[in-house]
Amino acid sequence: MMQDDAVLDRIGALADDLKLANLRPQISACRSLLHNGDSLDVAVFGRFKSGKSSLLNHIAGRDVLPIGVVPLTAVITRLRYGKMVRAEVRFLDGRAREIPIGEVDLYVSERENPDNKRRVAAVDIELPSLERFDPLRFVDTPGLGSAFAHNTAAALQWLPNVGAALVAVSADAPLSERDLALLADLRRHTPSIILLLTKADLLNSAQRVEVRSFVNEQFHRQDGHPPAVYFYSVMPALTELSVKFEQEILLPMRRDRGETSKHILRHKVNSLVSQALDYARVALAAATQVESARVELRNRLAAERQQFELLRAELGGLARQWIANSLDGYLVALGSTEQELEARTAAKLRAQFPNWRVRLPEFLRLWREWLQEYLLRELADVSRKETVLFCAPLQMTQDHLVRALQAFHDRLVGHVQAALGLGLPPYKVTLAMRTPGAPPIEIGFAFDATFEIVAPVLPLALIRPLIERSLCRKTRYEVEKNISRLASAWRDSVAAEVEALIQQAEEYVGNELTTLEHSLIQAPSSAPRLIDAITYLDSCRVSFDNDSNGTDS
Ligand SMILES: Nc1nc2c(ncn2[C@@H]2O[C@H](COP(=O)(O)OP(=O)(O)O)[C@@H](O)[C@H]2O)c(=O)[nH]1
Ligand SMILES: [Mg+2]
Fold first, then answer.
1. 105 in ligand 1 pocket by Cβ < 6 Å?
2. pLDDT of 154 higher than 50
């Protein structure tokens, strides 16, 4: 392990020297893995509702994580062995506080902690029931790739830290494009990936055979190592599946954690070494190149910078236009949902009236509370079902940016190839797109103030039909008002995320250009230093290769 430390130091120094800003997150992830001690993180990835939390509860033997809730995009929950049941919340500002175990969902679910108002970074849970896995630590990541939470930043940014990865995919809808993309992404960060086909009880045994061969076929078509595939179910009838998974994967992982950690670290360091080598070669080629080739490349990079600024301005304009038109678009698209909800709410309300045999002020209070609760549920449902609609401008921005960045990178590769006759690392850009959480819902007051003051003196029996009719009308209005509030709140948060995405792309491009520009100012005198670094990194790669050949065979 000493050697990995030295390699990381060397890459760190090179990154400072050549301003390799895009390698920094990977370097620090390797360092923390190296100093993680004996523990190993087993992270569960997968789409929202793929059964991640259920799986971890099942492994822990108790319901500590909330099930079927919309997860908070920013919060990661970790479970490990501890002598006593204990839960601790870590906040974004660095503070930490112990909480009762029953209160975990107050911090990790979108419903209880909308938009992460409590500013939570992570929740750590210790349970005596996890002793047989000690010191493995299980990590529940927020859902990826669902309508509600595609590509959540928290889970994606966490990728460089992943140890072993379990990817949960519901057995009744196996392997979408997004699942395959996630698996490909994960492969860059860990060699240890297990695909879990959850909710296996939804299939009979013939269907399970069919699903397994479908999955194998999917992997067969891709290159690279296919992951191990296991069925899982939390239902007692299929305990044999979870026992098998535990025996064949989790317990060996615990037993071989030292080896596994080393293997994972090696994989990450190796990938870093290749990337660093490519940049060092560019710098060396530049340092030893005739001035004219360097000037030529520098001019092209300057042109790229300008071009990207133009593209950014153009894209910013486009995105603002999409946002400006989005509210009307949302409301048109939600028209039938709104009508249907108005009719349903009014019908439900009429069915409630006979239960409210009380005086008028109390009657109004009951109405308001009932409507608030009812609409909260219904509008949360609209939020969930229509996330794709609400996030359309965000998705369009992301699609545009991914294409623009890919084209940018391809051009850079072309310039460097033409000027120096060298390749660049094949950079696969991951833009972390955060899906905004559902906005809050409010109900206005029932009547104008004067009506409320006079109302208590009128006998309710007399005016009841009048009040009921009026409340039905008011209810329809509340539905309409809150649907448009929901839509405009979505527009605002989508607009903020669009800006954040554009900024991320800009940062990536800026880093990449700075790195290359910096490589070009290497004077011929820096050549020996660079040759030294290249020789060293090359020898690391050879020795890693020998190591892995040794351990795999
Ligand atoms: N039939 C069945 N349902 C499951 C199983 N595991 C999870 N579910 C259901 O799938 C839904 C989503 O589960 P959850 O653990 O919250 O998924 P997460 O969003 O990935 O954490 C819930 O309604 C669970 O009850 C299983 O093994 N069998
Ligand atoms: Mg969950």
1. no
2. no
Cβ-in-10-Å burial (0-12, 13-18, 19+) of 488 comes to: middle
Ligand 1, atom nearest to 66 Cα? 16
Q: Which parts of 334-420 fold into alpha helices (H)? A: 335-352, 360-385, 387-390, 392-420
Taking alpha carbons only, the member of 353, 344, 346 closest to residue 381 is 344
Sign of the torsion angle spanned by Cα atoms 467, 469, 473, 475: positive
Closest CA to 401 of 497, 516, 515: 497
Kindly calculate the radius of gyration of the chain based on its CA atoms and give it in whole angstroms.
28
Could you tell me what percent of the chain has a pLDDT over 70? 86
User: Up-side HSE of residue 115: CA atoms within 13 Å toward CB?
Assistant: 11
Tokens of 254: 């615990």
For ligand 1, pick from 49, 63, 72, 196 the residue to mutate: most ligand atoms within 8 Å of CB. 49
Cα(135) to centroid of ligand 1, in Å?
26
What pLDDT score was predicted for residue 356? 87
Contact predicate 522/283, CB 8 Å: yes
How is residue 472 written in tokens? 């039905």
Neighbours of 375 (CB within 10 A): 22
Minimum CA distance residue for ligand 1 atom 13: 51
Band the pLDDT of 243: cuts 50, 70, 90: very high
Which is higher by pLDDT, 505 or 99?
A: 99
Calculate how far, in angstroms, residue 196's C-alpha sits from the geometric centre of ligand 1: 13
Pocket of ligand 1 contains residue 152 by CB under 6 Å: no
Predicted pLDDT at 117: 83
CA–centroid distance, 155 to ligand 1, in Å, is: 19
CB of 201 closer than 6 A to ligand 1? yes
Q: Which CA distances in Å does 154 have to 88, 167, 329?
A: 19, 16, 29
Instruction: Summarize the confidence of residues 361-372 as an average pLDDT.
Output: 87
Atom of ligand 1 nearest to the CA of 50: 20
Domains delineated in the chain: 40-257 (3.40.50.300), 326-520 (no CATH)
350, 470 in Cβ contact below 8 A?
A: no
Nearest atom of ligand 1 to the alpha carbon of 233: 27
In the chain, % of residues over pLDDT 90? 23
Residue nearest to atom 22 of ligand 1 (CA): 68
- Ligand 1 centroid from CA 67, angstroms: 7
